[in-house]
Amino acid sequence: MYERKNEMKIRTGFVSNSSSTSFVIYGVRINREDLIIKITDNEKLEERIVKFAQKRWDEYHLPEIEKPEKVQDIPNWQLPIVLEEVFPKNLKVYKAPWDALYIGRNWEEIGNDETGGQLKDCVQRMFKYIFGVTIKCETIRETWDS
Q: Are 100 and 30 contacting, i.e. CB atoms less than 8 angstroms apart?
């Protein structure tokens, strides 16, 4: 007789479907206003982000919204997309259903020859390079229903 075994598959890192989103990163949770302040404090960063948003605006053919001239003009739905393109490739940006963004590195992407301490140091250095200031990071586990 055939015996069926119940096996549960577990996925770590970013998981998304029609009902929920979850992830574990080392990084920061920041609201849009605070992020905009940090970006506008760095003129070159703001310029790169706005230029990329304008390029994407042209590609999306969005006549119903004005082309962004400042980082504050970038729509909420577009900001995470633009940031992931402008930030170093291993930094991920997640947009929560509320006014928060999560920026950091996924723990599942730790290299085989990398320690947890090295991953944390790497994230801290990236934030210092991007924003010009030290930003307090932490491990963030988040889940929400879509």
A: yes
